[in-house]
Amino acid sequence: MTTSKRVGRWRQGESGNPAGRRPGTGEVAALRAAISEHVPAIIEKLVEQAKAGDVAASRLLLERIVPPLKAAEQPTPMRLPNGPLADQGRAVLAAAGAGELAPGQAAQLLSGLGALAKLIETDELAARIAALEAKHLNT
Predict the structure, then answer these.
(1) 3-class SS of residue 55
(2) Residue 74 near residue 100 (C-beta atoms within 8 A)
(3) Are 73 and 104 in contact (CB under 8 A)?
(4) Cα–Cα distance, 13 to 6 (Å, whole number)
């Protein structure tokens, strides 16, 4: 008994329609085309309903037409003490605890201080390695 494989018309990895379907020929495009001339009247009716107190119409208008508002924190000037980074971090925490600084701003400042500490540490390590290499070359 021999088994034969069905041979397709195209090689593997080769498309039978390399150009693909033309844009705008699907069901969604047809639906959009059918209602496109009525969109201004639909929006006008939704606005009327929203003004009359229809909560669903108001929600639809606000969700689909007006972009959502994003909360934004106002910048707060702050003087950090001169000295070690730990003292500066304590000052940030104290300002946040006293309500002088928003928690998000305090977190960002502490994150910045942490990044600065890593940069300082990297610079110090590079200087120490350079000093050790120079000392090793001289011996």
Answers:
(1) helix
(2) no
(3) yes
(4) 16
Tokens of 110: 């502490």
String of b and e for 29-62 (b: at least 16 CB within 10 Å)?
eeeeeeeeeeeeeeeeebeebbeeeeeebbeebe
Pure H helices in the chain? 27-35, 39-51, 55-64, 85-97, 103-138
pLDDT per residue, tens digit, the chain (139 aa), is 555 566 667 777 777 777 777 777 788 888 888 899 999 999 999 999 999 999 999 999 888 877 777 877 788 888 999 999 999 999 999 999 999 999 999 999 999 999 999 999 999 999 999 999 999 888 7
